[in-house]
Every structure is written in structure tokens, then in C-alpha cells.
Write a structure and sequence with these properties.
Strand order of the largest sheet: 3-4-5-6-7
Shape: globular
Distance between the termini: 52 Å
Number of helices: 12
Structural class: alpha+beta
Helix content: 25-40%
Mean pLDDT: 78
């Protein structure tokens, strides 16, 4: 790699040469490329918005793999392994506690982390909502909505409105606002599913701080993982959904690709009850022409067991 960097070597931010130079010589890189300052966000900007939501780049909180500095792409493996390394149980539970929000997840002090969470919520409810001029500002209602989403059993607009004793349209408008501010993630029902769109706060540690159960934190985690990985892998058109059966059985995440459908089912007990898996077979019968990869996540186990089958 050259010691001097010139504009001839600069191709794009995706160039391997550019990435290496920017990583090893950040000050020189910025000095030589002042015209790109407007699209580069610094640490102060990240800390202010915590997720980059006020910048030009929509940044997700760090995924579990990113907090552990694990490779995202199998091609990045250097030791000849074909499979990406997986987390263990303690690493997963630490992630659920600390989350992946920049400026927060690496803090050792729980008090400091909670202070940041409160500052983040205050920033949203007292400043960010003012940008939505067509929506009457209501800091108290917005604050209550953010704090309720991780705790309510069914996090959709109808149940949230009922719990807050306001009409559903008012809740829907504020949910859209929070989605645009990158405070919550929206997961629509699958086309074969009953139910309405469900909402999750953007980070599992934030959900835990707001009073979410461990089960809800575990639900929030794969939502973040799937959305972040789809975004970074340039698969933004592949939107995850969920499936609810007529008997209220749930498949938490359905991720459809061109040739496969991935199903993620969370099991909240140590012992697997095969009856809980019947919903996976029921769903597969409705999509008999597709190939599936099923993933089961147990509450007390970070590893996943996978199986694929053709219906």
C-alpha cells in the first residue's frame, strides 16, 4: 500500500485501497478529500443521534457479530473455515444487556448506559418530533408510546391505542413518525398471515431498559439482525415479515429470497415442545413450491439448529 495517497487512487468508498488508507491514515484521508466532508459523520454526530438517524446514512445499531468483531461475509474468513463463527450463550446475554447502539454498548457502567438511554428518548420527544410540522407535537404521548411498545403483549397499532386510550389513527401517525426517525422497526404480517404490522424498538438493550421481558428482547434481536444484514448486504427489497396462524401461533421472522424462505421461530422454554413446531410445517404446506431453511432459537441457548426440506 502506498504511503502517499493521491486522488488518482481514490475510486469510491467501496474501494479496498480507499478503505485501507482511510483506516490507517484517517486524518490524511480527510485532508486530501475535503469535498467528501459533508457526507462523513464524525463521533460527535453519532453520539448525538446514537444510531446515525439524523445523518445522511441510515445506520443500524451494531449487530451481535459486529460487537464481537466477527466477520460478516464467509469470504472474510482467513483460516480455511467454511462456516462463520457463532456466539456462545454468555455473549448473547451480554449483547441483550448492552445492545449495539454506538456510544453505549461498550460502556461498563449500567448507570451511564441508562443515562444515555434517557437522553436518547428525551432527544426524540423534545426535539426530533418538532421536524414533523403536520403532526401536532405531543412529547408526553410520544414518550408513553416509546415506553409501551417493548412491554405490550401484541405490539400493533390497535393494541397500543387501546392501552393508551386514544384512537388508532393517532397512534398510527406517531408510529410512522417514530419509524422515520429510526426509533422503531416495523414488521408487517406475511401475505398468508392474519394480524397487523408489529413494532419493535431498534435495539434489544433499549427494549430491556424500557421494561421488556427477556422473551421480547429475544424477539427484538433477530428483527435487528435481519434488517441490518439485509441493508449491509444490499438486499433492501427483501423485507422480513412475521406469520400468525388462526390459532395465534407465531413465526417471528420470515425472510423470503429468490429461491428460499428462511423461517425463524423462537422457543421460550429450555425443553422443546414439538407441538410448537407444527406451525412451521403448516406454513410450508401453504408454500409447497419453495425451499425452506428453518432456524430455531431457544431461550437459553445461543446456537441455532438448522434443517432444510422441500415440500
Amino acid at each position: 500500500m502506498p504511503t502517499e495517497f493521491n486522488n488518482a487512487l481514490f475510486e469510491s468508498f467501496d474501494s479496498a485501497t480507499t478503505k485501507r488508507f482511510a483506516h490507517d491514515n484517517p486524518d490524511t484521508f480527510l485532508e486530501k478529500n475535503k469535498e467528501y466532508h459533508s457526507i462523513i459523520i464524525d463521533e460527535a454526530q453519532i453520539k448525538e443521534s446514537l444510531t446515525g438517524r439524523m445523518s445522511r446514512i441510515r445506520l443500524f445499531p451494531f449487530t451481535l457479530a459486529e460487537t464481537l468483531q466477527l466477520p460478516f461475509d464467509p469470504n472474510q474468513l482467513k483460516d480455511g473455515r467454511k462456516k462463520l463463527p457463532r456466539c456462545n450463550r454468555s455473549e448473547l446475554f451480554r449483547y441483550l444487556k448492552n445492545g449495539g447502539m454506538p456510544g453505549i454498548f461498550a460502556l461498563r457502567s449500567q448507570d451511564a448506559r441508562e443515562t444515555f438511554f434517557e437522553d436518547w428518548i428525551s432527544l426524540i420527544t423534545n426535539r426530533d418530533i418538532l421536524f414533523f410540522q403536520k403532526l401536532k407535537p405531543n412529547s408526553e404521548l410520544t414518550d408513553s408510546l416509546i415506553r409501551l411498545i417493548p412491554k405490550i403483549e401484541t405490539p400493533d397499532a390497535t393494541h397500543l391505542a387501546k392501552a393508551l386510550h386514544i384512537n388508532t389513527k393517532m397512534v398510527q401517525k406517531r408510529l410512522l413518525m417514530l419509524e422515520q426517525l429510526f426509533v422503531i422497526h416495523k414488521i408487517p404480517p406475511h401475505r398468508l398471515s392474519t394480524g397487523k404490522p408489529r413494532y419493535y424498538v431498534l435495539d434489544p438493550a433499549m427494549a430491556g431498559y424500557l421494561g421488556a421481558s427477556l422473551d421480547r428482547q429475544l424477539q427484538t434481536w433477530p428483527v435487528l439482525e435481519m434488517l441490518a444484514n439485509a441493508s449491509y448486504g444490499d438486499s433492501r427489497k427483501a423485507k422480513p415479515s412475521y406469520y400468525r396462524s388462526a390459532r395465534n401461533g407465531i413465526i417471528e421472522i420470515i425472510h423470503e429470497k429468490e429461491s428460499t424462505i428462511e423461517l425463524i421461530k423462537l422457543l421460550f422454554r429450555e425443553k422443546i415442545d414439538l407441538r410448537e413446531l407444527e406451525i412451521l410445517h403448516a406454513f410450508s404446506k401453504k408454500n409447497s413450491t419453495r425451499f425452506y431453511r428453518k432456524q430455531f432459537y431457544r431461550k437459553h441457548q445461543a446456537q441455532s439448529s438448522r434443517s432444510g426440506f422441500k415440500s
